[in-house]
Amino acid sequence: MSPSGEFAFGFHPQQGKFLLAIWYAKIPMNTIVWIANQGTPVEGGAKIQLTSNGVLLVSTQNGTEIWKAQAPDNRQVTSAVILNTGNLVLSTPDSTVV
Questions:
Q1: Distance between CA atoms of 54 and 69, rounded to whole angstroms?
Q2: pLDDT tens digits for 14-63?
Q3: Do 57 and 20 form a contact (C-beta atoms < 8 A)?
């Protein structure tokens, strides 16, 4: 959830499966503004991982990789934060935004 509560990030239900998404959290229809795995929704038990080498990864419960995004230059990433603008940002240990 963004600090203002305006945006949410996570698995959003879609026709019995789930999409990794960012959506407006304060409006009744939860309008989605970004989807990672649109063509490949996942079942319950799927995982979101942020690896130390900057990979944001969606995998199934049994570990099959569905979608991933890589930080430039394989930079070390230690956090992911959703801002009040709805942007998801990854940061390095020294707080540099990737």
A1: 8
A2: 899 999 999 999 998 879 999 999 899 999 999 999 987 888 999 999 99
A3: no
Are residues 85 and 59 in contact, defined by beta-carbon separation less than 8 angstroms?
no
**Distance (Å, rounded) from C-alpha 93 to C-alpha 81?**
13
Strand partners for 97: 91
Q: In this structure, what token pair is assigned to residue 81?
A: 């934060």
Pair of tokens at residue 7: 């945006």
d(CA 22, CA 56): 14
Write out 51-88 in H/E/C secondary structure.
CCCCEEEEECCCCCEEEEEECHHHCCCCEEEECCCCCE
Per-residue model confidence as pLDDT tens digits over 66-91? 999 888 887 888 889 999 999 999 88
Question: What domains sit in the chain, N to C, each tagged with a CATH number?
Answer: 7-91 (2.90.10.10)
